[in-house]
Structures are given as C-alpha cells and as structure tokens.
Design a protein that fits this description.
five-stranded antiparallel beta sheet, Rossmann fold, 11 strands
Length: 281
Amino acid sequence: MEPLLDVQNLSVSFPTANGETTVLHNASYRIHKGEVLAIVGESGSGKSVAMLAVMGLLPTTATVKADRIAFEGRDISNLSAADRRRIIGKDIAMIFQEPVASLNPCFTAGFQIEEVLKQHTDLDKKARHARAIELLEAVGLPNPEDRLKAYPHQMSGGQCQRIMIAIAMACSPKLLIADEPTTALDVTIQKQILELLANLQAETGMAMIMITHDMGVVAETADRVTVQYKGRLMEEADVLSLFENPKHAYTKALLSALPENATGDRLPTIDYSADYTGGAA
C-alpha cells in the first residue's frame, strides 16, 4: 500500500559564519493512512526541522535536499506557493510548539479559526462561524461563543493549545503533525491534550506524526517510532518491539535513562562518551 507521506533521504542545512551546518542527514519517513508515527529524540536532534521542511515552512536561507517528498503519491517538494497553500492547512496540518506564541495576539480565536475555513472551504460567513463553534466543542472548550471572542492573552496555555488544535482540525486534515503539543503545559493539562489528540485521531481516522522527547508519550500514542540523534535516524520499529527489544545503542541508552529505571537516589543518565552515530552495537 502506498504511504500517505513518503519522505526519502531528506537533508537540511543552514548557513553559518564558516559555511553551512547540516542539521538533518538523509532522513526518511513513511506514514500510512490512519497510522500514528512518533519521532522521538532529544532537543536539537532535527525532529521539528524535518517536519517544517516537509511543510515548506523553513526560512529561505535553509538548504533542503531530498530524493522524494510525496503526499498521496504526488511530489510536493517543488510546488508553487499557490499549490502548496491548497494542501498545507487543509490536507496536512501542524500543531506548533508554544501555542501562545503561535497564535496571533492581534486577532481573536474565532477570527483565526475562521480564517483557515475561509482559505480552504466554500463556507459562507454564517457556516464558518457554526463550524468554529463545532470545533471548539470538539476540543472540549466550554462556552465556545465566549472563547471565539477571546484573544490569546485572555486564555490559559491549555486553552490556547486547544485553539491551535481546533485550527489544525478545521478542514479535517488527512495528516496532522503535532510538534511537542504539551510543551510548557502542566502535567494534568498535558494528559488532557494527549487524550484529546488520541480521541480525534481515532474518530477521524487521520494519520498523525507526534514529535516528542517523551518516551511515555510514545508508549501511549504511537504505532511506530523513529528515534533520532544529532540529525540522524538511529532506529525505526513498532512501539512494542522498540520498548521490548531495542536494537540501536542510542535507543537502549534512551530507554535506560527513563526515571523509572532510577536506582537509589540518583536518576539515570545517558553516557555521551559513546559514539551513538557509529552503529547499532
């Protein structure tokens, strides 16, 4: 079966004072309809950069190279801006880190939700408003009429994250990319957001890519896992296999550093003296 998203040998570089620095090296990702793929790794491992490259949202100074970036069998790497806008936000949507920073502080939540609907659907103003109400109810926000009139600074971080999810879900995407969707939220709200995303994914049947550094999130949400380290893919496996029988040395180190593996009064750590990019042994 042809994957919904097929990315082959993706590399990303940024200019530096001494030339260019490559932050992602020949990474490949595949996800099928209805599947949940977790991309896990430490901060700086290239997780977000990879998906921003797929979305075409990196700055123009970035150099992006790939053998293939295809969505539903169509190469989207060289689309015109107009053609890309027809896909991004509609068929492929993304929930960004830091919801308060991602929302425009100058516009109400309702305006920002309805703007997506205006861009990608033929709904009239009344229908867009009704759809916005429906979306806020779907993401569990009470008093949706009041929330639509609120500005981001008038809402909590958890409420802003739900608004971001509503915006991403507005056009019923086929693929949702969730980039650290629980960053800066307290533990109780994190659990609510993860449950909300899992429920929305199950109800709609969309595919989802979950970018995270939290192995607990991986265990709870994903079907398959890709482990990244220093811009390279270390290992890919289904969730059960990864946790029960990790193959790569870095994956083993990552799992051994989970807090539940603590002994005595010290938390486990990763031994960075090892060359994890060298192989699976």
